[in-house]
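[Backbone geometry]
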Amino acid sequence: KIMKKYFLIVITFFMFSCSDTDHVCEIQSNGFIDGMDGQVMMGSQSAVEVFKDMDKAWAALDYDKLKTFVADGAVMKFADGEVANGPDEFVEQIKREVVEIEEKGNDFKWNTDYAFSLAVTTGEGDWVNAQFTSTHTNPDSELEAEVFYEFYHIIDGKVQEWNQFKRTELK
């Protein structure tokens, strides 16, 4: 019984003696971005949550809510080369895409495959990187699916810049 108490005291001593409350962790970062002095590190979960809310509004075609996520001066670059400036142009381009997709006999829907946030040690905001898979529902389509890669630059809860890239998968 005395040995058990002694053992607990020793363990407690080691636990508290090894904890360093004044220790400042170095930011884990790596890589580079041409033209910037900083490196890349993990971003915030709050940026991912903004992305998730925006994705939900987009999937529901809630255009008014979708606009609230886009900054007035945002530059939004679509995979087909179209560029929208600000929330109104962004939503108008999405409306055109919905019509085009549905006219081809496909459903306007997707699966969000992943999303994570990165940041630059010397930059402002976070970059959310996300992937989506849109399976073609038209049986006559030559495509099985389209896979989209998107990058959202989010500062203070608003997308400042967005870039979209696309890869197609044949049947």
Observations:
- The mean pLDDT is 89.
- The CA atoms of residues 84 and 90 lie 5 Å apart.
